[in-house]
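Dear colleagues,

For the upcoming journal club I promised to circulate an example of a predicted protein-ligand complex. I picked one with manganese (II) ion because it came up in last month's discussion. The inputs are reproduced below in full, followed by the predicted structure.
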Amino acid sequence: MTTDIKFKKSAPAKTSIAVITVYDNAKLKGEGLTLDKASKGLISNAIKTSPKFSGKHGETLAVSLPEKSDFDQVICLGLGKAAELNAPKAEELGGKLFAKLESIGTQKAVLLINDIKSTKSLQTQEYAASIAMGFKLRSYKFEIYKAKNKDKKPFKELTIIGDEFKKAEKLYVPQSGVADGVFTARDLINEPPNTLHPPHYAKFIKKELEPLGVKVEILDEKKMKAMGMGAILAVGMGSAQKPRMVIMRWNGSKKKTAPIALVGKGVTFDTGGISLKPGAGMDEMKMDMGGSAAVVGTMKALALRGSKSNVVGIVGLAENMPSSNAYRPGDIIKSYSGKTIEIMNTDAEGRLVLADCLTHVQKKFKPSMIIDLATLTGAIMVALGHEYCGTFTNNDKLWGQMEKASANTSEKLWRMPLDPFWKQDMESNVADLRNLARTSGRWGGACTAAGFLEHFIEDGTTWAHMDIAGTAYIKADKPTVPKFGTGFGVRVLDRLIADNYES
Ligand code: BES
Ligand code: MN
Ligand code: ZN
């Protein structure tokens, strides 16, 4: 990543652009006022005469200064109402500021933060760290497959200037690690399925996480066969690239407490298998490993910020392809749990991959709780669109913690119902379970999928299932970039752990 964010007491020489902040009364104060006076009122006059800038949240206004001023240009950044500014809104500002600076085509800028007032809820340095986080998240690019454009000069460096710069930097550094975890998740989702197949993906995880102190174990198809993981193996049978299961362990707590388990669906490409999907938009099914990407990204974030938690991440990697070796509707397979599953539709494959991962993590690690993430159903998109992630959980306390973490990170969660009816509706006449609901048909598809997973959760175990089919991959704001991986899940999980499970 090319964008660098620094924190200093005063502006380095030769910075051409300074960003000042303005509340919604549109009045300049402190540093803004000083610059305005030096320019003989140029800035305040520009604000007064601009119909598009009044200091509202996220507005920007660029003002060119006369020659021999301290800066060539000043950008006014609207903060909105002081009382309404909080961390997520400050992040939003950072994102908008990045977009503005990028559109100007500059490579460096300073942001003067002394004019941001501390409030009851947040201190100036906390606002600054959040603006920096939003700025960094927005700077993400996925351009490794484009021939280099020599004329293109991406934005390089933002320096945040203020009296409390050291405190702001201290708050920002761990957040920056979380952003790096988000970037890894986005990279994985954006990576095409011809390069990101299960064996390659498994190797990538090892290479990426082991240097950070995460222990990584890879189960290949032979090992999984020997162990009896018939569900994940069935899904991957039709592909020349065989499945992998990857187990990542971060032991950051001094205490030897049972780990939290994070489980991710990693279907590197979902054609639907023999129950083939329609052709239109099938390219999007490269994102069907979004749950696993969130788990890998979270493990990276935890390691980078030195989280004092014990977490085991486990991802099931498989490619769902039609071929003469592929599993079929009508097959009965045996999962690692011992439960047999009648295959009704090979496109309901994610739940099979998750089933073996869930069993393994419970058998081997006896986790204190389990959270799984999966791009599991189109039905969750029908229900909640691209805005909310459907979250199913058997534990109200965990839900309360997740809701809080969500509010603080702008990754939105909506609680969905678990019901004994849906669990039962996944039982088969000829096997223990079936992978399509018996009577519900397509109605409540996200709920029946959760009902299937529930069969693989041991009694009394705290569990949450996040269906991220709608949130893992969304339309970009640029028309030239059709869709991109969001890295959804990394931030909310990191926050959940940071706020509740560190010691
Ligand atoms: N990977 C898909 C779900 C999906 C759909 C994710 C659209 C992202 C965007 C999943 O494996 C799937 O195919 N689900 C089926 C389940 C059905 C066969 C019960 C679905 O949602 O149609
Ligand atoms: Mn599918
Ligand atoms: Zn799928």
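Two points we might discuss: The chain has two domains: 4-163, 178-500. The two ends are 32 Å apart (CA to CA).

See you all on Thursday,
B. R.
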